[in-house]
């Protein structure tokens, strides 16, 4: 009866790793990720040649780099999805600590590449953005602490997770990177809510976020400029938002045609933050809706599979990973259509960016590892294990 209700698969003793992985992994989610990456390469062929020309590089320089980083991301996704939840937790904790140290050292050794925010390390042949790798590690650590707080005679895991969240948000605000800070706060809030938090506390945190946002607006010129541009009744056609808005309007339902778009010649970030504007202009609303549908499928399927999970850590960590993946996509598309202020955030697996692609592969790999079908055991066995 338990397997009929929870949809688990029986354990096969001695079964090789690859057949067991293929039998238990969510293949639909994997296919959606591969399609997103394929769309990213297609849009990269359109968006990146103008940038390569401005930088005196080969026309397909950025496309080849995106293919390389994307291949590494997909390999990382598959390998991570083969891990056990315990191994994923260890990987997440180690990755979080390394990324946290790297973020703490950014003010001393980092660079802003002329964008006004110190978020990267320059490696000569490329760059490294530690906040991208911090996100999946943070989810794992926070979920572990929240799950531990539910045990009998447990440590104050909720308080520890909140303290870690505030440290991470503070480091992101120093850069400044308020978009990633919002992602971290949202992911922690979702996991905290799922773990049984009170609504009053979450409302208090939301109020605190508004207060911090007000302080940031008054003290950070970088932040204030983006908010003012968002609240302005008129869009300056010479800004990134102006170019993106016009491109989406010109694209209409079916687009202006492959290679016929003009926004890629005007937007410096057409291949990264505003890749959805390129998709809307050249391929129209049809492709944009298809991309959104892929993200919805990945998120909804993952959450539905997690609903069957009894292990609190797996349920919380999987929920956090699924939500942070979906919200990043929502923010990126929302910025392009001016529903949200400009955040400087990539579209997972579609935008160009080595750190973003590889970190995205690790994130979805962890999610696939947590959503694999596995024997859940009898509920009495789980309660007995938690008691002792």
Short description:
By secondary structure, this protein is mainly α. The chain is built from 16 helices and two strands.
Describe the fold and architecture.
With 388 residues, the protein is mainly alpha-helical. The chain has one domain (23-374). Helix content is 69%, strand content 1%. The chain has 16 helices and 2 strands. The protein has helices at 2-6, 17-24, 27-54, 61-81, 85-104, 106-109, 130-148, 157-174, 178-194, 199-219, 221-231, 240-251, 275-306, 312-336, 354-371, 379-387, and strands spanning 121-122, 127-128. A two-stranded antiparallel sheet has the order 1-2. The chain starts with a helix and ends with a helix.
């Amino acid at each position: 009866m338990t397997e009929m209700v929870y949809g688990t698969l029986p354990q096969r003793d001695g079964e090789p790793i690859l057949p067991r992985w293929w039998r238990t992994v969510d293949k639909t989610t994997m296919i959606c990720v591969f399609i997103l990456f394929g769309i990213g390469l297609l849009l990269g062929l359109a968006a990146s040649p103008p940038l390569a020309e401005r930088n005196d590089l080969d026309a397909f320089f950025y496309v080849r780099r995106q293919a390389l980083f994307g291949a590494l991301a997909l390999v990382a996704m598959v390998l991570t999805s083969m891990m056990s939840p315990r191994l994923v937790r260890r990987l997440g904790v180690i990755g979080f600590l390394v990324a946290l140290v790297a973020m703490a050292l950014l003010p001393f050794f980092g660079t802003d590449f002329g964008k006004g925010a110190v978020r990267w390390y320059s490696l000569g042949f490329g760059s490294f953005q530690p906040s991208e790798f911090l996100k999946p590690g943070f989810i794992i650590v926070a979920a572990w602490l929240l799950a531990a707080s539910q045990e009998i005679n447990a440590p104050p895991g909720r308080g520890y997770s909140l303290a870690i969240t505030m440290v991470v948000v503070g480091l992101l605000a120093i850069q400044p990177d308020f978009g990633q800070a919002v992602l971290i706060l949202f992911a922690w809030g979702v996991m905290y809510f799922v773990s049984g938090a009170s609504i009053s506390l979450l409302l208090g945190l939301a109020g605190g976020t508004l207060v911090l946002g007000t302080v940031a607006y008054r003290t950070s010129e970088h932040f204030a400029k983006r908010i003012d541009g968002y609240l302005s009744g008129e869009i300056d056609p010479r800004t990134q938002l102006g170019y993106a808005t016009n491109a989406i309007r010109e694209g209409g339902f079916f687009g202006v045609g492959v290679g016929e778009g003009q926004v890629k010649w005007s937007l410096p970030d057409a291949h990264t933050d505003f890749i959805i504007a390129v998709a809307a202009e050249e391929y129209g609303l049809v492709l944009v809706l298809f991309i959104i549908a892929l993200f919805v499928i990945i998120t909804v399927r993952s959450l539905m599979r997690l609903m069957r999970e009894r292990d609190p850590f797996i349920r919380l960590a999987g929920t956090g990973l699924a939500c942070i993946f979906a919200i990043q996509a929502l923010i990126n598309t929302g910025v392009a259509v001016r529903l949200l202020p400009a955040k400087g955030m990539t579209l997972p697996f579609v935008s160009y960016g080595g750190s973003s692609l590889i970190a995205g592969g690790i994130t979805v790999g962890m999610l696939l590892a947590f959503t694999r079908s596995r024997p859940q055991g009898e509920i009495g066995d789980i309660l007995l294990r938690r008691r002792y």
